[in-house]
Amino acid sequence: MTSTVSRLRFRDPQVEMAHGAGGKASRRLIDGLFAPLLFGGSAPAPLGDAAHINVNGTCVAFTTDSFVVSPLRFPGGSIGELAVNGTVNDLAVSGAKAQALVVSFVLEAGLRTEVLEAEVRAMAAAAQAAGVAIAGGDTKVVEHGKADQMYITTSGIGPLISGLSISPAAVRCGDKILLSGPIGDHGITILLARGDLDLDADLRSDTRSVLPLVERLAEAVGAAVHWMRDPTRGGVATTLNELANDCGLGIVLSEDRIPVRDEVRGACELLGLDPLHIANEGQFLAVVAAEQAEAALEALRETPGGHEAALIGEITDTPPGSVLVTTLYGGSRIVDMLVGDPLPRIC
Amino acid sequence: MKFVDEFREPVLITRTADEIRRLADPRRHYRFMEVCGGHTHSIYRFGLKDLLPPNIELVHGPGCPVCVLPMGRIDDGLSIAEQPDVIFTAFGDMMRVPGTRGSPLEYKARGTDIRIVYSPTDALRLARRNPDKHVLFFAIGFETTAPSTALTLMRAKADGIRNFSVFCNHVTIIPAIRAILDSPDMRIDAFIGPGHVSTVIGCRPYTWIANSEEKPIVVTGFEPLDILQSIVMLLRQLNDRQQKVENQYTRAVPWEGNRAALKAMAEVFELRPYFEWRGLGFISQSALRLRESYAEWDSERRFSVPGVRVTDPKAAQCGEVLKGFLKPAQCKLFGKECTPEHPVGALMVSSEGSCAAYYSYEHRKSQVLTHGSLTR
Lengths: 347, 376
Fold this sequence. Notes:
- The complex is a heterodimer.
- In chain A, helix 6 (211-221) packs across helix 9.
- Chain A has 9 helices and 14 strands.
- By secondary structure, chain A is α+β, with helices and mostly antiparallel strands.
- In chain A, strands 9-11-8-12-10-13-14 form a 7-stranded mixed sheet, with helices on both faces. In chain A, strands 1-2-7-5-6 form a 5-stranded mixed sheet, covered by helices on one side.
- Chain A is globular and about 55 Å long.
- Chain B is of the alpha/beta class.
- Chain B has helices at residues 10-23, 37-45, 71-81, 104-109, 120-129, 146-159, 173-182, 196-201, 207-211, 224-239, 259-268, 299-302, 318-322, 354-362; strands at 30-36, 56-63, 86-90, 114-116, 134-139, 164-168, 190-193, 217-219, 245-247, 269-271, 274-277, 281-284, 288-290.
- The two termini of chain B are 24 Å apart.
- Helices cover 34% and strands 15% of the residues of chain B.
- Classes of the chains: A alpha+beta, B alpha/beta.
- The interface between A and B is large, with 48 and 58 residues.
C-alpha cells in the first residue's frame, strides 16, 4: 500500500470546480489520485470513454456518467435525455452499441413530482429512440438544500460494433479528422437558458444519440476509423488535446472548416469564449485513415443528422502533443485544453 | 456575421498584409505597442504575427485591467466577501485571478457567496432581490466599463438601494501610457491605440503622445483587418516622418468620445491621488474612486478593509513583461511555476493577459514546421 500511496501525485488541497470541468485539472485528479488507488496503479491507458472488459471470453464496453445540469430543462433537451444519450454516446464512440443502462437518481426532498415525471418520461423516450433498454436502477433522496433538484447517473453496457478497432495507438500521421456537425450548440444553449445573460438566440441543445452515425461510419469504412470521442465538457479543443497527448502526434485544424452556427459564434464573440471550448452533447470526432476519409465523410453526410459533418483537420508529426488551428489567412494559433469552466470576458 | 465577417475577409487581409510588407523598410526595426489587452488577444487568436514581416515587433501594453490589479486589492475585496450576509459579485474575468489565499473561484468552492455577473446592473438587481444581504460589486476596468458602474450607482442612489456597494478598481488609460513612455528603457516607435476605451474618451486625450512625445498613435478596432490596417497607418506616418493621432476605428469611436458616458463618470467618480498598478508601481492620478456624495455605496468606506499590500514573488517579472522589456517566454517563471492553471502573475490569468495569450496560442508553436495543406 505504501508504494501505491507514494505514487499519489495529486497535491491540490481541496476539490475545486475545475476538477469536474473535464480539462487539465480533471486529468490531474484522475491520473494523480483515482488511477493509482483504483485502477491498479496506473490509469487504463489511455483513458477512453468506456472500459472494455472481458466477460467469459466476450469483450463488452462498460461506462458510467453522472448528470448535474442546471437548469434541468433547456431548449432542445433536458437532464433526462442527456442522461440516456450521454451514456449511449460514450459507448458508441468507444466502438460499442449500448444494450442496457441502469440508472441512479439522487433527488432533493421537495422536488415536484411533475418535474421528476417529466424527466423520467424524457429518459424513456430517449432510450426508445436510441434502442437501449433501461434494465434497473436505484433512488436516494437527500435533505432539501443538500442537492440541486436532481442528479442522474447512468451506467451502460454493450457489445463492440464489429469491424471497429479504435485506440489512440492506431492514429497515424496523415489521418484525417472528421466532425459530425456544428459545435457549441449545447454549451451556449445552457449558458443562455440560465438566464443570467440578457441574450436570446434561436438555439437548441444538440443532445441526441450518435450511435446511428457511428454505426454507419463502421459499416462504410470499418477499420479505417482509428479513434473516436464525443467532445462534451471542454469541447473539441480539450478532446483533441487529450488525443494529441495520448498518441504523441500533432493535430492541425483548419478554422474555416469547423462548422459553428452563427448564433454560437455571436454569443462566443460577445462573451470572449472560443467555440472550440464549448460543450457538445450530440457530436463526435473521428480520426480516419486518409485514403478512406472521403468515403467516411460521404457516409456521415448521407446519414440523417449527419449532413453537416465536416473534415476539419489532420494528424501531423508536429507539433507533438499539441493542437494547432490555422486561420483563414495563413496565420496559426495553438489551442490548449480548457482550464476550468469557460468564463465570459467582459472588461 | 454582420460587422465581424467583413473585418475577417481573407482577401482583404492578405492584401493589407502585402501592403504592410511593401511599406515596412527592411533596414529598420519597428516596435509597436498594442495598448489594449483586447488587441493582444486578437493578435494571438488570429495568428496575425505570422502575417507580419519579422522586423515589425508587437509589444503588449498595460491595457488589461485584470493584469494590472495588485493582489492586495483582490485580498481586500475577498475579505469583505467573507463577512456574513455579503454577496460578492464580479465579472467572469476576475474569477480566476489569484489572491494570497486563492482566487474568487476558489473562495466560491469553499462556500463564500461569490457570483459572476455580466454587468453591474445584474449586481444591483441581485441587491433588489436580496434585501437582507449586502451585494458588493468588485468593479474593474478602464474607461470602457467605468460608465456602466457609474450609471448603476446613479440608479442605486436614485432608487435608494442601500444594500449595494461598489469596490472600485477602475483605472484610467492615459497615466498608464505616460508611465510606459517615462520608463528609461522605453523603445516604442508607435502605438496601436485602445479601441473600446476610446469609444468613451474619444481621440483627443492622446494628442500629447503625438505632439510632445512625437509618437504616432492610431486608435484601433479589434478585428484582424482593423489591426493590420492600423499598422499600415502607423507605417505611413513613420515613413512620412509624421506624428499624428489617427482614428482607424471610426465605426465605433467618435473623435470627441461619448459625452453622456463621460458625464456619468464625472458625476460619480473622482481621481485617486495615486493607485498601485501591478508591475508598474504607484502611478499618480491613475485610478477612480467614488465621490463623497456616493460614500454610502462605496465598499471601501462601508466596510473596514485591511488595505493589504502584497508584493509579487521576486522571481516573477510581470513588470518587465507589462512594460514590453521582456517577452512572456523570457520570464523565469513562464510555463514552469506560472501557467494558466496555476498563475503566479495576473498576466497569466486573463485571456487578454499577454502571458496567458502567449501560453495559449503561441507557446510550442516554435516547434511547428510547415505542415501539409488539408484536402477536403
